[in-house]
Amino acid sequence: LVPFPPGGGTDIQARLLSKLFQAEFNQNFVIDNRTGAGGLIAAQMTADAPGDGYNLLFTSGSISVVTTLYASRMKFTVQNDLVPVSWLSTTPLVLSLHPSVPAKSVNDLVGLAKKRPSVAAGNDVGSTAHLSAEMLNQYAGLKTTVATYRGGGPAVIALISGEVDYLFATAPSIMPHLKSGKAKALAVTTEKPSAALPDLPTMNSIYPGFISDNWYAMYFPKNTPKPIVDRMNAAIKKALDAPEVRAFMTREALEVVASSPEGLVEKFKNDSARYAKVIKAANIKAE
Fold this sequence. Notes:
The protein has helices spanning 9-25, 40-48, 63-69, 78-81, 106-115, 128-140, 152-160, 171-180, 203-206, 226-240, 243-251, 261-282; strands at residues 57-60, 82-91, 93-97, 119-122, 145-148, 166-170, 184-188, 214-221, 255-256. α3 (63-69) crosses α12 (261-282) and α6 packs across α12. Strands 5-4-6-3-7 form a five-stranded mixed sheet, with helices on both faces. The chain has a four-stranded antiparallel sheet with strand order 1-8-2-9, sandwiched between helices. By secondary structure, the chain is α+β, with helices and mostly antiparallel strands. 45% of the residues lie in helices and 16% in strands.
C-alpha cells in the first residue's frame, strides 16, 4: 500500500524495490496506491489488514506529521496498530531562494526577512516543507507568511517564478533548478550534511534542533509475527544494497538508511514530538 499517487517519490521507490522483492521472494508484489488524508487512508487500511505478511505499507515521514494534524480523525495509532519494519531512506529539504533575493547565507535571509515582508512557500498544509518554513519563523523570530500549495510541484513553480521568496524544497524536486540557475540554495535540513549537496551547511548547525528531512519507511499490520518482520527487514537491506538502487538513490539525492525496526520507532517518536510542537505553536489546522 502506497499512500500517494503514482509518480511521486514514495511510489517510485516502491516500484523499484518491488521488482527486487519479487525476485527475492519469488512472488508478485502489487503496488496499490490509496491516496488521501495525508497518507492516513493507506495507513488505516494497513492497520485493519491481517498480520500475515501479505500487506505492507510503504509511506513517508508525513506519517509523523498527520498523526498530530489529523489526530481527531484517526481510528488507529502508529504505535499500537502498525509494526515497524525499516526506515529505508532519507532526503533533505533544501532552503532554496529565488535568484532575485539578495541573500548568500541563512543569516542574510533572516536579516532580510526582519527588515522587509517576505513570503515563503510550503507544499500542502502540514507537509514537511510547510512545517520547515514555520520552524524557521519560530527559531529565528520571523513573521514570514507561509503560502501553501497543492503539492511540491506547484510550490517549486511558485519559487522559480518569483511568486515567493523561499521554499524548503525536497532535494529531488529542486536539484534541476539549482543546476539551471533558476533557484539558489542556502542550507539543508538533515541533521548531517548531505552527500548530494556537500557544500551546504545544515540548518541544525545554525539553529540547533532544526531538523526536518523527508524519509521513507515500511510497516506491517499489528500482530505480524517477528520472523516475518525480520525476514522483510533483511530483504529491504539486501535490496537497498543493489547497484541499481544505489545509483537511483544517488541520482535522486536520497540517502540509504536501512534501519532496524527499533531505528524506525525512534525516528517516528522524535519527529512526531518535534512536529507536534511546531503545529501547536503555529496553530496549524488540517484542511
